């Protein structure tokens, strides 16, 4: 049994999540966990550090076995070792894909609400972002396939950049939804780049379907980007696994990697951590983490329904990031931010960072000890009630 209930004070440690000018603020924004990583990961890093040898190393066979074995155990998905490439992080991999599979001036299609980094990456790459707004009905987000196909037809994007599970809505797309997306991208000649970094935490019996597990048609057009970072809390060991089944797509990406020496000069501590994370030694830790986070999610939903009914939780199917509908408060973004940050002293990820579809929403990170979550919600309750009393 692992103890996730003990709060860990991260103030003053250099944590980006907890780097707030006001030390009274509870930081519930940036997507990392306030839990120590799995013991097997820590031990792998200690063993490497104790060796005193930090030169160039080839990735060991154990790493490839860990990646392919993990996909088999967690998702029943067969991955060939030769499909496994890497990059120094998910967003680096995303930019490499944009540079590799499109040209300046081309369009990149994304679902909305969308996280601000992908908009910046597309813009900095000299491409144009086209959005496919998701439809919110009865607390559930759905893909607008008619709009998706129209955007493919009208703009002819070279790339569809998919985030699945989706950030910030928490949707874990069904196999049927994914098959339809694959069919449309294939029909209109778009490479499907799937960011699946949030796939390790699932709720309420929902499943994650890796894009490369959907058959040959998907494997012909898809690039899968993932990392152990989000679930195993190793974001600082920046690393992403890039899985490409199609030989042509893989050769293109490998050529881009070679241009940056990204395969030869790999951080050996990142590889050690990833190998440990994907090994069976961390399976129980991940399962217990998921159970603890499910308890946090239930607590959040019940507390808000009972004490802050002006807010609506968009219950996620995955991840530890929860999208909150605050539109009933009737506040513009700057006043909504002030309500949470200045009055409640709770730092969130602000909805307007997700584009126009995010205005009136905020994202809260429940990857913390229950006591921290309880305190944050109590603060928010007091601030909202004080707002109504004015």
From TrEMBL:
Domain Aminotransferase class I/classII large: 28-380
The protein's enzyme class: lyase
EC number: 4.4.1.13
One of the record's GO molecular function terms: pyridoxal phosphate binding
Database matches in CDD domains: AAT_like
Gene3D superfamilies xref list: Aspartate Aminotransferase, domain 1 (3.90.1150.10), Type I PLP-dependent aspartate aminotransferase-like (Major domain) (3.40.640.10)
Domain of life, per lineage: Bacteria
Key word Protein biosynthesis present: no
UniProt cross-references to PANTHER family, sorted A to Z: PROTEIN MALY
Family of the protein in this entry: Belongs to the class-II pyridoxal-phosphate-dependent aminotransferase family. MalY/PatB cystathionine beta-lyase subfamily.
NCBIfam families: C_S_lyase_PatB
Name this polypeptide is given: cysteine-S-conjugate beta-lyase
Species name: Neobittarella massiliensis
């Amino acid at each position: 049994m692992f103890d996730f209930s003990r709060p860990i004070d991260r103030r003053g440690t250099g944590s980006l999540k907890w780097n707030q000018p006001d030390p009274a603020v509870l930081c519930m924004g940036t997507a990392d966990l306030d839990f120590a990583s799995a013991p097997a990961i820590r031990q792998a890093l200690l063993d490497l550090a104790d060796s005193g040898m930090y030169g160039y190393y080839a990735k060991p066979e154990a790493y490839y076995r860990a990646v392919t074995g993990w996909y088999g155990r967690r998702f029943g998905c067969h991955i060939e070792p030769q499909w496994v490439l890497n990059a120094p992080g998910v967003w680096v991999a995303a930019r490499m894909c944009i540079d590799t599979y499109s040209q300046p001036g081309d369009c990149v299609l994304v679902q909305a609400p969308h996280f601000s980094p992908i908009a910046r990456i597309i813009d900095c790459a000299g491409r144009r972002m086209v959005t496919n707004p998701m439809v919110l009905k009865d607390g559930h987000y759905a893909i607008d396939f008619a709009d998706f196909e129209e955007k493919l037809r009208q703009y002819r994007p070279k790339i569809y950049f998919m985030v699945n599970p989706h950030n910030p809505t928490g949707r874990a797309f069904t196999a049927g939804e994914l098959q339809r997306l694959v069919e449309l991208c294939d029909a209109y000649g778009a490479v499907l780049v799937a960011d699946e970094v949030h796939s390790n935490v699932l709720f309420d019996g929902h499943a994650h379907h890796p894009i490369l597990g959907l058959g040959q048609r998907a494997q012909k057009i898809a690039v899968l980007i993932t990392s152990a970072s989000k679930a195993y809390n190793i974001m600082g060991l920046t690393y992403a696994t890039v899985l490409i089944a199609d030989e042509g797509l893989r050769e293109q990406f490998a050529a881009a990697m070679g241009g940056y020496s990204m395969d030869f000069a790999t951080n050996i501590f990142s590889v050690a951590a990833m190998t440990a994370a994907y090994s069976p030694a961390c399976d129980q830790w991940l399962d217990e983490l998921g159970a603890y986070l499910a308890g946090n999610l239930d607590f959040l939903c019940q507390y808000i329904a009972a004490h802050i009914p002006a807010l609506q939780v968009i219950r996620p199917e995955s991840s530890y990031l929860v999208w909150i509908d605050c539109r009933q408060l009737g506040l513009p973004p700057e006043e909504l931010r002030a309500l949470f940050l200045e009055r409640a002293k709770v730092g969130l990820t602000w909805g307007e960072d997700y584009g126009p579809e995010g205005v009136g929403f905020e994202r809260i990170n429940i990857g913390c000890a229950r006591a921290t979550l309880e305190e944050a919600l109590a603060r928010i309750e007091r601030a909202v009630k004080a707002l109504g009393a004015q």
